[in-house]
RNA sequence: GUCCCCAUCGUCUAGUGGUUAGGACUCCGCCCUUUCAAGGCGGCAACACGGGUUCGAGUCCCGUUGGGGACGCCA
């Protein structure tokens, strides 16, 4: 029990907790139109019946030295059952629309979605756009589309039309789902808090506070804002009424606040760490803390799963809920996702990498780099971005830089992975494993690691979410993708690949007409780790996506397979050309048989004949199976390519 | 500086007092083979450290070390 450790209070006293609860409840007043909160099996008093602490001498001794309650999860499982019968489970994903959906956010959304589906509840999406400076409508659209693409359908929230469904809607009458449209509600809550002297106006300027924080830091002290003893309420209220700029702060109760976390256990925050935090900003908008608490209550949210960076905010939210007589949702804080280098995976990572690369390019060749970038990027924006570590460029600008400078920026956003050719179910599968595991073995005793979103929804439980932070391992994601793609049937793969092409590489499809397309897709399936690889310029499928006279011949391959041998590969080509010119049908099996016959006639192994042909047709020593390669190209191309090879790769 | 969280192969993890510590990814080897893949088989590799508790500790407790998070009129 962290609180006991930190505050030196010794054994946790269930009665003490109960007093807190009762006091909190005493000023509860259910909001109009909503049923009164029913008591819950919760906290120390609720758990007591299941763990029987007093009957187990060992356990009570351990508690006396401050042991965290390991039995908690069992009790929770039972509690979850109770909740399921008595109450609709509601989870939510509440992004702030300041950019694309990144994978960390996607995982949070995924777990919320999975929990709601698992418990037969509802999953809602709410847009937290109280930050006027940074929120944008574009970002909202992008995030919603990313969620939909991942297959995380929401029951309540902003509307989104997709190909096969309309998501969102407000069946329960709990909207709107944009916090910027819910301002009146927050104002009413804040007014009532001020009325009861649970909140008060504060007039320090940001600069003043900054100074205080710096001072505290210099004195190696911890800064926290608490209402001064000599604070005069009437004067303050009058100044506020007179229009003096101010924020509103919540009067944090002066007592330890314990948070029951479904993943981490019980965590207590001592009174000395809590401060009177701001609930309404100078611009009149509520802060995250106030808005999230008010909205979660109004929208009936029962389970809050969020990143661990929010753990320290939880006592604030709990205090607010108690002051307002709200129900306390179940909390579960998810471990953080890291980059392979151990740094926190952040939405700013791409900017960071890009900035570094641009700076490097600038140092090497200032004028040249500028010339390349200036066409697509506003120089002023670019310079600002280079100078400011925290600045973020738009996705299109970042993509321009990536393309113009030939970089590969690290994928962070869901859109990045979509672009990179990952199937949504692969990303979902992989993301789910970052922190959660099904804990099941298959028939061979191996861990179950591959599952569909549907299976995840069936299996998911908070008990199986780990506490440790996880690194995002791209190699494993790639392997998952390859395995999934390889397991598809040819038609399925082709359809997914074509869909990807339509969005990201429409010109590629133009090269593959008629039956060649299906043949190409089938040949590329086992050779592709992502949907982007078939069209990769240096991939095994590149030969089919270039004109008959635009590809080059790899000198090493030419040297090895055309120049050498007795007869040399080159000498075999005219004969092969002739055989192929008259071959009917021009199909893989017939082609391989015909080439095999030529080999046999010269008492050569298949390789001695196939490789020269392969080099002539593709310019390289590697391509799909020979029959497939030829059939994909078609007879005309094949003959033209042999002719060009003969002409261009002459002996020198 | 204060507070909080975390700790099993390089990575993701299984493991809830008695296991030859299991799986997956990566890497390496072999087989298959007209190339590249794919596929099959096999291998390397971990309980951070120190104290307790216990007949017995990866599992429970304490400490150390290491990693991470928070300390905004961002969310």
Radius of gyration: 32 Å
Average pLDDT rating: 84
Strand content: 5-15%
Distance between the termini: 81 Å
**Secondary-structure content class:** mainly alpha
Overall geometry comes to elongated
In order across it, which strands form the biggest sheet? 5-6-9
Give the uncertain stretches in residue-range form: 1-84
Number of helices: 29
Largest sheet: 3 strands, antiparallel
The number of distinct β-strands equals 13
What fraction, in percent, of the residue positions are helical? 40-55%
Note down, in words, how this protein is organized:
There is one protein chain. With 652 residues, the protein is mainly alpha-helical. A 3-stranded antiparallel β-sheet has the order 5-6-9. The termini are far apart. The structure holds one RNA strand of 75 nucleotides.
List the helices and strands and how they pair.
Layout: H1 2-7, H2 14-26, H3 43-51, H4 57-64, H5 72-86, E1 90-93, H6 103-118, E2 122-125, H7 137-150, E3 157-161, E4 166-169, H8 183-195, E5 199-202, H9 206-218, H10 233-241, E6 247-250, E7 257-261, E8 265-269, E9 278-280, H11 288-298, E10 303-307, H12 314-324, E11 330-334, E12 337-338, H13 349-364, H14 366-374, H15 379-387, H16 395-404, H17 414-419, H18 424-432, H19 453-459, E13 470-471, H20 474-487, H21 490-504, H22 506-510, H23 515-524, H24 555-563, H25 569-581, H26 588-601, H27 606-618, H28 626-633, H29 635-648
Parallel strand pairs: 1-2, 10-11, 12-13
Antiparallel strand pairs: 3-4, 5-6, 6-9, 7-8
This protein binds one RNA strand of 75 nucleotides through helix 9, helix 11, strand 13, helix 20 and helix 26.
